[in-house]
Design brief:
46% helix, single chain, 286 residues, 3-stranded antiparallel beta sheet, 10 strands, alpha/beta, globular, 5-stranded parallel beta sheet
Length: 286
């Protein structure tokens, strides 16, 4: 932890913890993308076989669906999905030394410190390296300019997907989230029908209901209250949104406005990423 503390006080790559530096540099990277391509500004991807694996970042407000779409792409592309939110929740459920400190931070809707995040991420990358993982889709990281700068010092990010959703829908979506206390899977009981207003189109999202064996075991996350959700969004806009500008200046960001729920958004996301044919080929092989 002392090394991580020194890292946050210095911009030199020599201060980056050896474990974190080694793990990221060894998770070799992605196909070449051209964010400014002439094909309607859609990125072009080569076949990842025989080349570096994807190294992507998913940005977006809490509850926008980063985990859902990053996880689906992880399965499609064959690279690990690493969600810092999951790492935090795993630590919270443990009896580790950080669990009590994290519980207080999360329940107040605050951002977890860089020091803690790097500690958890470093351990996850080391575990993946030992299993032969290559590449990654990062979800929920980086959240600050400092984190993005440090990430740039140790690896090259190929593409940043910035998911967007109107805020009133975001709040309703977060309040509908439920988790099965037995299997840990996430669901959503909200049936969203937002009206068109202020130039924004109408939007509908069907609930993602659990199977019968989970329906009686649903719990609500302690931090999914309206007060905490709105505080998370405020903190995000204040602290994390500048990260978008950081990657925008590098020409690596792809903006994607979610048109609705998964049935509407997934095929359009694949189209925006120029991966429609990739999914068809993978399905045929399977």
């Amino acid at each position: 932890m002392a090394a991580l503390t020194r890292l946050l006080k210095s911009s030199s790559s020599s201060s980056i913890p050896f474990l974190f530096r080694r793990s990221l540099s060894s998770t070799t990277t992605a196909v070449v993308s051209d964010i400014e391509s002439q094909d309607n500004q859609r990125p072009n991807f080569s076949d990842p076989k025989g080349s570096r694996n994807f190294q992507w970042v998913f940005l977006g407000c809490p509850g926008v669906g980063k985990g859902t779409y990053a996880s689906r792409l992880s399965t499609l592309l064959g690279v690990p999905h690493i969600a810092t939110g999951d790492l935090v929740r795993e630590e919270l459920s443990s009896s580790g030394p950080l669990s009590r400190q994290l519980a207080e931070i999360v329940n107040q809707g605050k951002l977890v410190s860089d020091e803690i995040i790097f500690n958890l991420l470093s351990k996850r990358l080391e575990a993946g390296e030992s299993k032969g993982e290559s590449g990654f889709i990062l979800d929920g990281f980086p959240r600050t300019i400092r984190q993005a700068e440090i990430l740039d010092e140790v690896t090259e990010i190929d593409l940043v997907v910035n998911l967007k959703l109107r805020e009133d829908v975001l709040v309703e979506k977060c309040l509908g989230r439920r988790i099965c206390s037995q299997c840990g899977k996430g669901f959503n009981v909200a049936s969203i029908n937002a009206k068109a207003e202020n130039g924004r189109p109408a939007m509908s999202m069907a609930p993602l209901l659990p199977p019968s064996h989970c329906s009686t075991k649903l719990i609500t996350r302690a931090d999914d209250t309206e007060e905490v959700v709105k505080e998370r969004l405020r903190v995000y806009h204040e602290k994390s949104q500048p990260v978008e500008d950081f990657y925008r200046e590098q020409g690596k960001i792809m903006e994607f406005d979610l048109p609705g729920g998964i049935p509407e958004s997934w095929p359009k996301l694949l189209e925006a990423l120029n991966l429609e044919d990739y999914e068809v080929k993978r399905s045929a092989v399977a």
